[in-house]
Design a protein that fits this description.
Number of strands: 24
Strand content: 35-45%
Radius of gyration: 22 Å
Number of domains: 2
Structural class: alpha/beta
Distance between the termini: 10 Å
Length: 465
Amino acid sequence: MISKKNFEKKYEYGFSKPNNYEFRSKKGLTEETVREISKMKEEPEWMLNFRLNALKIFKSKNLPTWGGDLSKIDFDDIYYYLKPTKGKSRTWEDLPKGIKETYDKIGIPESEKAILGGVKAQYESEVVYGSLLKDLSDKGVIFTDTDSALKKYPELFKKYFATIVPPLDNKFAALNSAVWSGGSFLYIPKGVKVELPLQTYFRINSSKMGQFERTLIIADEGSQVVYAEGCSSPMYSEDSLHSAVVEIVVLKGARVRYITVQNWFNDVYNLVTKRAVAYEDSVMEWIDGNLGSKVTMKYPSVYLMGERAHGEILSIALASNGQHQDVGAKVIHVAPNTSSIINSKSICLNGGRTTYRGMVKVNKNASGCKIRVNCDALILDQDSRTDTYPHMEIDNKHTMLSHEASVSKLNSNQIYYLMSRGLSEEEAGSVIVSGFIEPILKELPVEHAVELNRLIELEMEGKVG
């Protein structure tokens, strides 16, 4: 078993940098704080009113009583807005020293040069750096931070903002709506296919910090894009809160792949609402890697609104000591002849807990739908726990649906066989785990697959043998 002390030594993103921040709000969520955020951002009046209404909704809703234990979140002991710099930098060299050293250590500048078509870097509450290849901007691709999009593209922004995830949706969507800051705004014009991935990296640096980015992606008809996000935080003894909202619109014939490799330290509550709507002949893919955090509650969803739309949600979750990964997927078949695949893999060890929570719904008029759901859990010791809560509402009898679920332990016969071929017991266990998650890894770009596999191996080290 890996001790907490040893894991902290291995968690390479657990460092923090001292910074002279431009502004830090008072702790606690009040109307004054919300007004202060809106004023500092010089927002239009409609956005201030939107925030204030969301604040009322947040206060009126109770914490969810299902899922992870959220009872220890102290909303009065959180900083809701922290502005790290005066503005956004155009080069990494222009960033303040502490922020630049953080991203240098994580390796984002090298990734930008090697494999990315554009990158955004968010530090605390604000996007501090942004870039986009010139040939993409020449084609009309818009890739900016959400705060800038509100001012630069007001009509496009207002047309879609909060239409997929409104404040009334849930308590944490309301919280995000009240204090949102940063995030990515991405628009892909008709027929444009973005060949290189676009990426945003989110970093929490301070303790008792709340990060509430808002991401909005619009893929116009016939367009195509791969968007990736990464997340990390330092090691603190005090809890932080990450509560994001992601809204994606996939118009006729478009294709969006959204990749997440989450690697928060285990003092972060990660409570995220991610939802997409897919129209005629479009494809929406969520690929989700969930490691770290204290509690994660995240259920990427797709609403299939047009005929022949297809949705896929592929996820891997790993929970170790003191962690609860309550994750899953939702697919709503609104239109006929739509299809979906949910493939969920989870691993729990060292007393960790994983939960799959899924929902599939087929509306009454959605005939000819095809659905495949597969949930597999791997438990590595007797102290760990996994649960599966599938929910299905099929209101049209002309539906093809398959559902498979399995819970297993490391197979002693497989370990014995691999050891007979010269592997150590620990190496044999790692090979079996790698095979278990391979269906998810093969869907990731090479650099993300390598990172995710390395993080899982790090957590596994010393567990078998």
